[in-house]
Amino acid sequence: MWYFAWLLGLPLAAVFAVLNAMWLEMQRDRKLTEMDDAPAPAAIGE
């Protein structure tokens, strides 16, 4: 019966890892997009 735990647990862990990686990529892309959309700081002396 231990194999049922492995049969369910390994794919669940793999799905969790993939979803976590996708979420982290999405967070990084969101930060980069916000940085691109932010107005450029004014140059000193202008």
Automatic annotation (TrEMBL):
Superkingdom field: Bacteria
UniProt xrefs under Pfam families: YbgT_YccB
Keyword presence, Transmembrane: yes
UniProt keyword Membrane, yes or no: yes
InterPro entries reported for this sequence: Cyd_oper_YbgT (IPR011724), YbgT_YccB (IPR012994)
Keywords attached to this entry: Membrane, Transmembrane, Transmembrane helix
Transmembrane segments: 6-24
Protein name, entry field: Cytochrome bd-I oxidase subunit CydX
Gene, per the UniProt record: cydX
